[in-house]
Amino acid sequence: MAEVSAPANKLELLPAVDVRDGRAVRLVHGESGTETSYGSPLEAALAWQRSGAEWLHLVDLDAAFGTGDNRALIGEVTEAMDIKVELSGGIRDDDTLAAALATGCTRVNLGTAALETPEWVAKVIAEYGDRVAVGLDVRGTTLRGRGWTRDGGDLYETLARLDSEGCARYVVTDIAKDGTLQGPNLELLKNVCAATEAPVVASGGVSSLDDLRAIAALVPRGVEGSIVGKALYAKAFTLEEALAAVAV
Ligand SMILES: O=C(O)c1ccccc1NCC(=O)[C@H](O)[C@H](O)COP(=O)(O)O
């Protein structure tokens, strides 16, 4: 299992592989039914690794939506990686957490559970520390759970609660931007960074190398990394170009 790296001043890039029904896909606004398919998740993940990625952001969308799971495939992809893996999607209880951690992933990203079972999340934050991140997936400042289909409370109230419990890291997604190639929500990222001392991973909307440079400019404020999905699949730029753009 790869170790979680120490904080650095270089923006980490996490190319995304979102899995639906055994295929690598990208959605628009995270909405089920908007899938564009990009083939084998393993091939996509291996391609990002060959291109120099240090992280993979791997999402089980079926588990997130409650339409099944891709557990075996997610395990196969994670096992094939020599790089760090962040696992997301449908990790909501002891069983799904144990299965996710057993893949050898570097960390997991909890979403719905942070909204619906806060006591359990506090317990696993205390138990697993840096191996647990919480995804703050928002429309405006309202959190969304259950595959981003249900409202789940106020962003800043939840952030304060999770901070008080020692949450190690947040993955922040503006759902309105996700999968749209419309650029990240930099104001949201700045506001979240101002509200917490914990590192923030940006997600959703990256469309260009300039977007990545703009996110990299927020590293001193607390942004640690950026997930990149659609832009890589749509060949807006290559991962090699992206890594070079954020190298310091
Ligand atoms: O991460 C989840 O659990 C999730 C649940 C439901 C819908 C989408 C979900 N994640 C999507 C992602 O993490 C994307 O890979 C990421 O935001 C990349 O976005 P983009 O660069 O805009 O393609």
Describe the 3D structure.
It holds the Pfam family His_biosynth. Its EC number is 5.3.1.16, 5.3.1.24. The protein has 248 residues and is α/β, with parallel strands linked by helices. The protein contains eleven helices and twelve strands. The chain has an eight-stranded parallel beta barrel, surrounded by seven helices. The mean pLDDT is 95. Bound molecules: the ligand O=C(O)c1ccccc1NCC(=O)[C@H](O)[C@H](O)COP(=O)(O)O. The ligand O=C(O)c1ccccc1NCC(=O)[C@H](O)[C@H](O)COP(=O)(O)O is lined by residues 16, 18, 26, 30, 57, 59, 61, 64, 88-89, 111, 135, 147-148, 173, 178-179, 203-206, 227-231.
Observed structural traits:
binds ligand LARABZUK, 12 strands, 36% helix, eight-stranded parallel β-barrel, 248 residues, TIM Barrel, alpha/beta
Give the helices and strands, then pairings.
Layout: E1 12-20, E2 23-26, E3 36-37, H1 41-50, E4 55-60, H2 61-65, H3 71-80, E5 84-88, H4 94-102, E6 107-110, H5 112-116, H6 118-128, E7 132-139, E8 142-145, E9 150-154, H7 155-164, E10 170-174, H8 186-195, E11 200-203, H9 209-216, E12 223-228, H10 230-233, H11 239-246
Parallel strand pairs: 1-4, 1-12, 4-5, 5-6, 6-7, 7-10, 10-11, 11-12
Antiparallel strand pairs: 1-2, 2-3, 7-8, 8-9
